Amino acid sequence: MQLVETHISRHIKAELKIGDMSLSMFRSFPDLNVTLEEVSLIGRERFSGDTLLNIPRIEASVNLKSLLSGKEVVVNRFLLKDCRLNLITDTAGYKNWDVLIQDNTGTSASGVFVPAEEKGPAGKSLQLSDIRIENLFVNDLDYQNSTYFHMEHLDLKLKGNFSERSTLADLSLSVKDISLRHRNSVWLNKVGLDWRAIIKADLQDLVFEIEKNDLTMNDLKLNLTGNLVVFPDKYRMDLQLDSPETQFESLLALVPKAFRECIQDLKTNGDFKLNATVKGDYYTGHWPAFQVNLQVNGAMIQYPGLPESVQNINMDLNMTHPGGPVDSMQINLKKMSFAIADNPFNLFLYIRNPHDPQLNGGAVGTLNFANLKKALPLKEVRLEGVVNTDVTFKGMYKDIENEQYEKFVAKGNVDFKDILFVNSMFPEGFSIPRGQILITPASLKLNQFQANVFSSDFVLQGDLSGYLPYVFKNGILKGDFSLNSTKVNLNEFIIAQMQTARKDTVSMASRTSQRGTPVTEGALEIPENIDIHFTTQIHTLLFDRLTVKNVKGRVGLANAVATLKNLSMDMLDGNMVMNGWYNTRDPRTPEVDFNLQVNHFDIHEAYEAFTFIRQSIPIAMNCNGRISASMKFSSQLDQAMSPVMTTANGSGYVESQGILLKDNPAMNQLASVLKNEELSRLSISHLKIDFKLENGNIKVEPFKTTFAGNPVTIYGTQTAGGQLDYTLSMTVRREYFGSDINNLLKSIPGSGNIESLDLDAKVEGTLTKPVIKPDLSKAIKRVTKEAEKELKGNLLDGLQNLFKKKK
Q: What's the CA gap between 637 and 615, in Å, rounded?
């Protein structure tokens, strides 16, 4: 194991790890079974820590006789089991799988390292006859080109004598799930593939020719013929693909198997043609010539039990490339049309050069969703309304990027009327009572666009620019709107996002972020590729336990951050103005940074509404009154969008003209010490508290106020965990001492001169269980001093009386 790890590490820019190795004569007798477990390849440098390859198990059955004697080691079976391959190309174009070290032995134009032939100590060659891969998972994330490829449950069996110059390779390949997405376009979605073939392989010159073929994609039968030649720096292809079947019903086999139930017992007619050719060389920056044609003519589908059908389905799609740079590729959807209940819909699209597209497209027609539901089995879905579309566009995409809109033609409109969508996720419905989108090259103009989501309603008026870069190049969508609403319930949006995220997590347990780490769900996430700003006027907004009225101000959503500018709102019988931001660039740990100006909040209502106050100032539960405040506050949030107290920082002040404090455990203890129950229910006069917040720890600067007319100075700290350390320095008038203390004072000489006493109290313990520790040293000194004054005046008379008694 050490020899293998050391030897391979000389040739790769990655770390090879082998968990364990075992040898057995019993698992594949009479062969020697060699097993490697937990083999992984971990990146270095730019991709440090990323696992490129993980193979839980590698097995090889080696002919023992060939191992001990002879010039050839015979491996009768080689197996890779449950392999995981994670390929990443970062935004700069660096690849985590480019791990081979280039040296003088040779390197190809494609970056493929070609090592010189190495001889082992015995000079043995290697014979392979049975290669198997079981349950291979491949994930390819190309951030430079915004491309995502996913493949899982790949099983491969390959038999042949691979030590000979040439062999007939018996290939059996099965893949259950292939998905390919490029920017905002989905090219393949959970496609299944099965391929059985006999391939004539020239292993010296690396020429592979398909002799027998049985290929299916989601049960659609295809013919694949031709050959492939592998050179050190390129691949040469000459391949042909077509479908032997022409009935439109056969084309529906491309529907992913997960949705196959939706097309059971479907009635169809019409035909289709599919063919493709690939010929030429492929290497970095150069594509072979290819052509793909798909035609559908006069097709119809009708679901059993539904009164309407989708008629006159026609398609003419052509994809071509003459060979060379990718810029020469053309995608031409000459026609795509269908009709439902005599409502036709037509569209066309031409794209040349995906990197710098020349565009020509359009759509015209009517979608009546009431008729659509009569033709398509939209189970557990209520769909109503009408969308009228008449849109055309033509020109060079670069003219849009250069804002030379006069060179690009885009015009038309999309009208919405009485749209209603109801399902399990939107039980109260998603509706668009009315709205119009006017299309220009520069923007989409929304005219009085009304929408109702859950129990919230919105009216949008404004422009949405950058929509073409957003669609074609994953660009940034920009907008400037006025947003009016009678009610926005943010709680419903947060709950819906959490439910959707949980479903995604169940269906795709390997959901990861760009950094390859699991993405948690729960926080309200702001998309990164939008730059939209609203001038808001919301009558009622609901968030957590809070009801907010008259929300006015400016809200911006850009680069995964929501920014608030002079956002004013009425709440808690008072008013608040907010400035700051809410950041979800890392959705696992969203952050807030706000400046708040609060005027005349009701203290008890604030306690009920804000988690932060319940966590840090639980004494507010027992308070009545109003407060004003000015504060800066920043913190990370958890997935329930509550502050993580250990990350909270800020400063400010809280001010009040009067607070009534009742049923507070700390004050109950103080009342018990002074033997006066009136102190458990105190009226506090005007106060102003300056505080600092550092990592959840609160420091209160000394401030003066009065408890029921008794002056008091308060200062101290509390930790993020709720540990208290406050000091109350009070001057308490004698009338606030209970009868027990007053009777005791009366027995002390000079107590008649005492109208008040100074005392301190330490408030310790926790927020939920505060402990009062009185410090009576000041009061004792005062009583002692007054007693001494009285005793000095009466000392002689006292002594004389004492001696007279003795005589």
A: 14
Contact between residue 747 and residue 709 where contact means Cβ atoms under 8 Å apart: no
CA distance 151 to 510: 13
Cβ distance 489 to 542 under 8 Å? Answer: yes
Bond from prior residue into 115 cis (ω within 30 degrees of 0): no
**Tokens standing for residue 557:** 């959503």
Strand runs labelled E in 708-750: 710-718, 724-733
Q: Give residue for tokens 């597209």.
A: 357
Most distant pair of Cα atoms in the chain: their distance: 142
Cβ pair 237, 288 in contact under 8 A: yes
- Among 412, 299, 419, smallest CA distance to 365 is for 412
Contacts of 104 (CB under 8 A, 6+ apart): none
In one-letter notation, the amino acid at residue 381 is V
Radius of gyration of the chain (CA): 39
Distance of alpha carbon 728 from alpha carbon 721, whole angstroms:
21
CB half-sphere exposure, 722, CA atoms < 13 A: 15
Q: Which helix (H) or strand (E) holds 786?
A: helix 777-806
- Please state, in angstroms and rounded to a whole number, the distance separating the CA atoms of residues 323 and 304: 46
- d(CA 457, CA 488) in angstroms, rounded, equals 7
3-state SS, residue 187: strand
Q: How far apart are CA 644 and CA 19, in angstroms?
A: 39
* pLDDT value, residue 523: 64
pTM, to two decimals: 0.61
- In whole angstroms, give the CA distance from residue 381 to residue 353: 40
List 299's β-bridge partners, or say none: 313
Length of the chain: 807
CB 772 within 8 A of CB 673: yes
Which residues does 283 contact at the CB level (< 8 Å), separation at least 6? 109, 110, 233, 234, 235
Element (H, E) at 655: strand 649-656
Token pair of 266 as six digits: 């479907």
Say if residues 74 and 127 touch (Cβ distance below 8 Å): yes
Alpha carbons 768 and 773: distance in angstroms, whole number: 16
Name the β-bridge partners of 181.
Answer: 148, 186
Phi and psi (nearest 5°) for 472? -95, -25
DSSP string computed for 255-298:
S-GGGGGGGTT-EEEEEEEEEEEEEEEEBTTBB-EEEEEEEEEE
Residue with tokens 């196959």: 260
Nearest to 510 by CA among 259, 141, 156, 147: 141
Beta bridge partners of 457: 452
Torsion of CA 553, 554, 555, 558, to 10 degrees: -170
Which segments of 493-560 are extended strands (E)? 530-543, 546-558
pLDDT single digits (tens) 760-804: 888 888 877 888 887 777 777 877 776 776 666 554 454 444 444
Low-confidence stretches of the chain (pLDDT beneath 70): 1, 3-4, 6-7, 9, 28, 70, 102-126, 183-185, 255-264, 497-523, 609-622, 661-667, 670-671, 673-683, 685, 708, 738-752, 786, 789-807
Please, which residues bridge with residue 130 across strands?
159
What is residue 67's predicted lDDT score, i.e. its pLDDT?
A: 73
Read off the tokens for 572.
């808690």
Confidence at residue 511, expressed as pLDDT on a 0 to 100 scale:
38
The Cα-based distances of 347 to 313, 392, 412, 610, 706 in angstroms read 12, 9, 13, 52, 77
| Cα 597 to Cα 579: distance, rounded to the nearest angstrom | 9
